[in-house]
Amino acid sequence: MAELANCSRCNAVFVKNIRTVCQNCYKEEEKAFETVYRFLRKQKNRETTVMEIGEATGVEELLIIKFVREKRLRPSQFPKLAYPCEKCGSHIRTGNLCQNCSNELKKDLEIHEQLEKSKEDRQENKQNIYYAFDEK
Which residues contact 54 (CB under 8 A, 6 or more apart)? Predict the structure, then answer.
């Protein structure tokens, strides 16, 4: 069923389907993609970074990052396409987190799971303890 939403770019109301932007913004994004892709197709520009592409084409860096995340621009073809890790800001080529932040998150989750398990174990042990008192 169709859902009404506000465009994430211009805040206009539109019927949301696959995209998170309205039709007008989608057309603008496609024009920006064509601009970026034409720029990158030139041999001399294949080694440029996201910041350099943004400066040369006038396209927002966030939009270029969106193209990379959607795999419309592939780092395998353009080796210096990288964007910041969502936690620490170091440059990554896939996903949302760098390897260090990902490992740190995994450790934190393991610690949390251990704490939850020990908490459950303590509660189970409390339920099985019976006390007897002598009344004299």
Answer: 60, 61, 64
